[in-house]
Amino acid sequence: MLRDDALRERLGRLAYGGDYNPEQWPEKTWAEDVELMREAGVNLVTVGVFSWAALEPEPGRYTFDWLDRVLDLLAANGIAADLATPTAAPPAWMIAARPEVLPVLADGSRLTFGARQHYCASSPVYRAGAATLVERLAARYAGHPALAMWHVGNEYPGVDGCHCAVSAEHFRRWLADRYGDLDALNEAWGTAFWGQRYGSWEEINPPGPVLGDPNPAQMVDFRRFNGDASLECFTAERDILRRFTPDVPVTTNFMASYKLLDYWRWAAEEDVVALDAYPDARDPIGQVRAAMNFDLMRSLRGGRPFILMESATGPMNSRRRNSARPPGQLRLRSHQAVARGSDSVMFFQWRASRFGAEKFFSAMVPHAGTDSRIWREVRELGAELRDLAPVAGSRVDADVAMVWDWRSWWALELRGRPSTDLAFHDQALAHYLPLWRANVPVAMVAPDADLSGYRLLVVPNLYLVSDAAATNIARFVEDGGHLVMSYFSGVVDEHDRIRRPNAFQDLLGVRIEEFNPLQVEEALTLRWSDGSESTASDWQDLMRAEGAQALASFTDGLFGPCPAVTRNAYGRGTATYVGTGLDDTRLRQVVLDAASAAGVRPTANVPEGVEAVRRGDHLFLLNHTGEEVTVAVPRPCVDLLTGTRHEGELRLEPLGVAVLSVGQIRPEGAVPRSAPSTGARNFPHQ
Ligand code: GAL
After folding, report:
1. Beta-ladder partners of 45
2. Is the CB of 277 under 6 A from ligand 1?
3. From CA 66, how far away is CA 55, in angstroms rounded?
4. Same domain flag for 575 and 593
5. Beta-carbon neighbour count of residue 246 at 10 Å?
6. Over the stretch 307-319, which tens digit does the pLDDT of each residue have?
C-alpha cells in the first residue's frame, strides 16, 4: 500500500484542520483548542512548522516536553498530527554564531534574522543543524499515536537563489556533474557570445549584477540548481524520517502554480502533494485560477489525490486590501478543492495569532471567537466534509491534457526575448479558461510524459523544448491525438539555443519566418475560413503554410495577408497552431473545435457559471454565480450533503453546492477512447 493510501485509511474520511501553533498560546488554551477542534470535526492538524527555537532553545538543549503534551492531547482526542520539521526557521542562536547560514541575494546583500526562511540551502551548517534536530524529532515521535504525516520545512525554496560563496561552490559542483567538462558547458551556455568563455570551473559564479542582460543559459541552469539545492534539503530530511517511520507519508507544502520550483521533480520525491492555496476572494475569475491550480496539484502525482494543506477562512494580510470572503464562498471553494482531487480541506491556521507579522490573517478560530460568522461557517463545513467520506481517494479522469513545463517557463520569462510581456501563466490560464467554462476536466502533463491516454493536448506555450519532448508530442499526434499549440513554441533547445527549424515545423506544417510582437494597443484583423472576422493582439507570427491549412489569416498588418491560425493533418491526428493572440471567443472556439474533433465531451451541460466535476462516483455541481440556477441531473441520485434524492433536475442556490452520488456513468453520449472522432460539435456554446 502506498503511504498516502495508508494516511487515508487511517483517517477514514477527508482530512479537516489547519496549522496549529500551540507554542504561541498559554497551555490553558490547549484544552479549549481540542474541544473546539472536535466540535468542528477537525481530524488533522499541522504542528510545529516554525518551532525550532521552541524545541532547541540553545544549541543541543532540547525541550520536547511541550510538544509531547500537545501530541498526547491530540491523540487522546482522536486528532491526528501532520508533524512538521521546523527547519524553515533556524533559531537566532544559530544565526548569531554562524551568520553564514543567512542567504545572500543577487545584489550581494545578506538577509538578516527577523522573519523566516532565512537560510542558504547549500549551507553545511544549516543542513547539519537541521539533520540533527530532525533525527531527534523522528526518534522521539516515531510510533506516537498522533503521528500521521510528516511535513518537511515550509514552502521551499525560501529565497530565490542564494549567491554566497558556499552556494557558488555548490553551483560549480552541480555544473561539473551536469556537463562533465568545461567545453560542454561553454558550448551549452554559448559563451562564445560576448567573450564569456570559461577556462576553469573556479571562474564560474551564480549570475549576479551585470551590465545589460546576463547569459540566459546560465540563468536557467542557476534556477535548476537552486531547485535541486532545496530538494537536497528536503530529501535529506525525508530520508532521516523514513529511517524511523518507513510507513508514514512525507510531504512539504507547494505554492500552487509557483514559478521557482519544478514541482514535477519535487512531487516524485514525496508521498503526497500538499498545496497552499490563497486565491484573492474578490478576483472575478478566482474560481478558474483555483481550478487550474487544483488540476495541477492532482496531476503532479499522476492523478492521485492531493492535500489542500493551507487555505484561508477569511481575509489574508499580504495584499494591498485584504477583503473578507463573501458568505458562502469558503464553503463553495472548499468543495471545489475536493471536487478536483483534494482529500482534505485545511487552513492556515487554527487560531488567529495575537502577535507577529500575520496577526491579521484569518483563522478557523478568529479573534472574534466562536460567536462569529467564520466559526459558524467552519463548523458547518466540518460537518459537511464528514458526509463526503465516500469521495476520499477517488480520481478525476481527464481526456484533455495541458502541457506545463517549468524549464520552459523560466527561459520564456528572461529578458532579451521578442516580448517580455509574454508570460507563461497568463497563456496557461487563457487556454484553460474555455475548458473550465465548458466543464471539460484537464490533466496537466510534463512535455515528455506518457500522452497515450489523452484525446486532446493543449500547449499554451512551450518556448523551450528538448528533442525527446518534441518527439513525444509529435508521436501523440501521429498516433491519432489532437493538438492545439500556441505561438512562440519550439523555439529553443534545453540550453536556450535557437532551434532551426522550429522543433514543431513538420508537426504543424508551417514555416515560421519572423516574430512580430504587437504593441499594447495594436490590433490586427483576422478573417476566418467561414468569412467571419475577429481581432488579433499581442503577437504575430510571419508564417507560411507548408502542408497546413489556414483556419484564419491576417488581412492587415506589416506582412499583409498571411496565415494566423492553421490546422495540419499529421499521422492519424491533427495539429492546430495559433500564431497570434486571439480574443476569448475565438480561442474558445479553436480549443473546443479541437476538443469536439477529438471526441471530448463536457462532464455535464450546466448553466454558465456552474462548475461540474466528476470525481469517481460523484458529480460535484458548484454554482459560482450569485443567482439560483436549475441543473439537469443525469440520473436519479442522492446529494451527499443533504441526503435529498433528485430526479430530473435540481435547484442550486447562489454559491450553492451539490455532491451527487451518480455511480459509474460516462457523461451522456461519451464515446470510448478508441473510437474514431466524428468531428461533431459537442459543446452547446460552440
Ligand atoms: C503560507 C505559509 C504560512 C502562512 C500563510 C499565510 O504561505 O506557509 O506559514 O504564512 O502563508 O500567510
Report:
1. 18, 81
2. no
3. 9
4. yes
5. 9
6. 999 999 999 999 9
617 and 628 belong to one structural domain: yes
Q: Is 310 in the pocket of ligand 1 (CB under 6 A)?
A: yes
Tens of pLDDT along 82-115?
999 999 999 999 999 999 999 999 999 999 999 9
DSSP, collapsed to helix, strand or coil, labels residue 588 as: helix
Ligand 1 contact, 154 CB (< 6 A):
yes
Same domain, 169 and 155: yes
Based on the domain organization, do 512 and 553 belong to the same domain? yes
Residue 285 in domain: yes
504, three cell numbers: 514543431
pLDDT tens digits along 440-496: 999 999 999 999 999 999 999 999 999 999 999 999 999 999 999 999 999 999 999
- Secondary structure class of 401 (helix, strand, coil): strand
Q: What is the pLDDT of residue 527?
A: 98
**585 part of a folded domain:** yes
Spell out the residues 6+ positions from residue 591 whose beta carbon is closer than 8 angstroms to its own.
Answer: 431, 434, 435, 458, 484
Query: Is 29 inside any structural domain?
Result: no
310 is catalytic: yes
The answer on 120 and 109 residing in a single domain is yes
Cβ(583) – ligand 1 distance below 6 Å = no
Ligand 1 centre from 153 Cα, in Å?
12
The residues with which 19 forms a beta bridge, in sequence order, are 46
In a domain, 100, yes or no: yes
Ligand 1 centroid to Cα of residue 18, in Å, is: 11
Residue 625, Cβ density class (10 Å: 0-12 exposed, 13-18 middle, ≥19 buried): middle
The cell 500556441 sits on which residue?
486
Q: Give the domain extent around 656.
A: 610-661
Closest alpha carbon to 129 in 110, 102, 101 = 101
Same-domain pairing of 580 and 623: no
DSSP 539: E
198, pLDDT greater than 90? yes
Task: From 24, 116, 155, give the residue whose CB has the most ligand 1 atoms within 8 Å, as the site to mutate.
Answer: 155
Alpha carbons 627 and 617: distance in angstroms, whole number: 27
Question: What is the total count of domains within the chain?
Answer: 4
AA identity, residue 266: W
Name the domain boundary from 272, 302, 337: 272
Q: Sign of the CA dihedral 275, 281, 287, 292?
A: negative
* Amino acid at residue number 176: A
Domain end among 272, 301, 331: 272
The alpha carbon of 352 and the centre of ligand 1 are apart by a number of angstroms equal to 12
Reading the block at residue 464, the C-alpha cell is 523551450
Q: Is 276 in the pocket of ligand 1 (CB under 6 A)?
A: yes
